[in-house]
Amino acid sequence: MTREKTTNAVEVRGLVKHFGETKAVDGIDLDVREGTVMGVLGPNGAGKTTLVRMLSTLLQPDGGTAKVAGYDVVRQPRELRRTIGLTGQYASVDEKLSGWENLYMIGRLLDLSRSQSRERADELLERFSLTEAARRPVMKYSGGMRRRLDLAASMIGRPKVLYLDEPTTGLDPRTRNEVWDEVKNIVAEGNTVLLTTQYMEEAEQLAEELTVIDRGRIIAEGRVPELKAKVGGRTLEVRPADPGELQRMVGALAQAGLDGLAGATADEASGVVSVPIVSDEQLTAVVSLLGERGFALADIATHLPSLDEVFLALTGQKATHQDDDNELEEVAA
Amino acid sequence: MSTATVKAPQSGESPTGSGAGSGSAPQKPGTVEGRIGLQANLRHIGALVRRNALQIKQDPESMMDALLMPIIFTLLFVYVFGGAIGGDGASGDRDQYVQYLIPGMMGMMGMSIAMAVGTGINEDFRKGVMDRFRSMPIARSSVLIAKSVVEIGRMLVAVTVLLTVGFLNGFEINGHWLGMLAAIGLTALFGASLLWIFILLGLTMNTAQAVQGVSFLVLMPLQFGSSVFVPPGTMPGWLKAFTDVNPLTHLADAARGLMLGQGEVAGPVMWTVIWSVGLTVVTAPIAITKFRKKT
Lengths: 333, 295
Fold this sequence. Notes:
The complex is a heterodimer. Chain A is an alpha/beta fold.
């Protein structure tokens, strides 16, 4: 990968971590430029969390080198810990404490004075819309509030590099959007972020560059639009109430002359018409067109390329995670 | 432990804390910037003690062991067994038994409370809180020291409750107040040394339940195979051999000597101190190393 000459906040060279026979991370090179968001996309067990844990000094690498903000993960762990913020499945807050107490404690642990810690806790609770819940124990928080507090907790020390390890895994779509908005704000402030995710959509929303890993190895990397172009975008799936209308629907869409509608296809077996989505406007136009033409619809949904489809498009082979039995639906690109 | 650079916040209270320095990290010390000074370390420990105290406030049930156990055990043993242990069931024997039982149970309080530390550490790891701490620029040992400070506080609460229940049920120390303070101090010292064993268990076992199960297995024989509840005189030889070396026996005898002013004092006190220091010297470094390396 060639890059313009800028400082790398994260520099990983040939990083290796084995757990017995399992090569969790098997020779990864990674550069994250200052002020950018690097997405690391991969299925469960690809080595994403192992990578993040090594970069946060929680795990010792078996080989290779890694530097964060210029500090070596093995030789300068303490200096390094001063420069990072960690949010993820494994780095959590104390459920028995209130949101405020959690943030105050972290402030004190980061050597802020009592009054600084108080101010910073108030400030971040406000910023992540948690002021009302500030005094409630975290175990009473909703999933989204909990993730926002996790984000706030990792921001207390104004880290030079922020790790977000699967920040929205397990959240419902609405909450996911909420967390994305917060992450986008963090990114807009010029923070350097290393984001791991299982979702192409998340990488697309948040990251500028993307590294796709599988079985501890990099299988693709590049700027998100480039990779996205290879993978294909969202698809609209419409199911007419009467399966007999499939062909008439495709015909009506094709005649409408809207962008991308020539790509509409009917799948008789599943009784669904698929339309590649090129823009929000086009999506709206398609839906209102169907209404105007008086089609009775049983179901309407948008569909993103699954991780399997992403892997298939990028590498020509399926991802190697355990549940390989997902059907590979055709992505109309 | 010669590399220790950190002192426990209250050195009298937590003699084991000074072994948990930050200077013995496996990696070479980095630049001055990366070092954690004594003051910063105390501040970190303070913040973590506050956390553990708040946990108790939020979850008062976690104090049940310290509050109820001394009451239940005292009443159970004094009123169920107390009369019979003397032989003829007269109430005079019960009063004598209170004198015997209360000092003996002090060490048992220390031991039972110490047990909880293992489950707490285990839970912190499972819930990811520990990873947050370990990815922060604090000495990793400060998490353990803070936990120990709070547990020692809980031991003191349990012992206070025990003594109060004892006094209400006829326990008398005839002015041996200094002896009582010394016995409390000895209990805290012994309890602190046990903390490391249970921390080690908490780091080794996979679930909090497993920690509790194993802890109980260790606890029961030690508590009953001692002079805590009855004088070991009537026990068979093999059991008596065990009770004679059991540190709980030494602590119970020491507390009796100190608070009742009768029986030997110097020997049991010395053995209690030897046991406490010995357990700490052996288990604390292992526990701290394991804590640092745990993934």
